[in-house]
């Protein structure tokens, strides 16, 4: 990754106190999207480690993934498929393949759904997201890919906070670790 992008990602990131009643700070990545040079650089930087494995499609979970996934797909010259979280009350129309994640970073088991007509045998899937913490949601997306007969080739994330064994097992490549970000 270009050193300038790494520096800008760190500068533009914030930890935010959500206010009374909250026991922890939450990440604010909105500065990454607001900065034109960073927005333009993110897609190519995310997909760089995966060009050699020739993904045919990018799949990303809602909702921040819907922003980053198309940037990565555009950089690769492939299409984008949304992994919906119907728990938000919006169920996509048509046949779907579902998976439920193990407990994620908030302890939630997240239901994810992908439209069957957009994923199938022969697809080599790059999963793209802003932040991977436990990789619970990544595992659910990989399960959907496998169910559809597609092959998950890896995951590109801006931040990877997984233990090294998980990073290796799931073939995650990230631009930063949480340790790179300001305390
Ligand atoms: O590694 P995990 O423990 O699975 O957690 C990582 C996921 O959690 C966040 O999404 P979130 O569900 O908060 O949705 P958001 O994109 O709407 O913030 C993040 O964008 C990843 O998708």
UniProtKB/TrEMBL annotation:
InterPro entries recorded: PRTase-like, PRTase_dom, Pur/Pyrimidine_PRTase
Domain of life: Bacteria
Gene Ontology molecular functions: glycosyltransferase activity
Source organism (scientific name): Micromonospora lutea
Transmembrane portions of the chain: none
SUPFAM superfamilies in the record: PRTase-like
Protein known as: Adenine phosphoribosyltransferase
Gene name per UniProt: apt_1
UniProt domain Phosphoribosyltransferase: residue ranges: 55-161
Annotated keywords: Glycosyltransferase, Purine salvage, Transferase
């Amino acid at each position: 990754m270009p050193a300038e992008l790494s520096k800008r990602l760190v500068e533009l990131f914030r930890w935010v106190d959500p206010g009374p009643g909250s026991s922890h700070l939450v990440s604010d990545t909105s500065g990454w999207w607001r900065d034109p040079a960073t927005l333009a650089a993110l897609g190519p930087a995310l997909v760089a480690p995966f060009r050699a494995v020739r993904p045919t499609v990018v799949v990303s979970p809602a909702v921040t993934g819907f922003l980053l996934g198309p940037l990565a797909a555009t950089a690769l010259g492939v299409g984008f498929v949304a992994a919906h979280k119907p728990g938000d009350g919006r169920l996509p129309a048509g046949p779907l393949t579902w998976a439920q994640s193990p407990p994620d970073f908030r302890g939630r088991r997240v239901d994810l759904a992908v439209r069957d007509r957009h994923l199938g045998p022969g697809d080599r899937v790059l999963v793209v997201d802003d932040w991977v913490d436990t990789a619970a949601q990544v595992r659910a997306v990989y399960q959907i890919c496998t169910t559809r007969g597609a092959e998950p080739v890896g995951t590109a994330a801006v931040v990877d906070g997984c233990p090294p064994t998980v990073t290796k097992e799931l073939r995650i490549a990230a631009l930063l670790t949480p340790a790179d970000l300001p305390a």
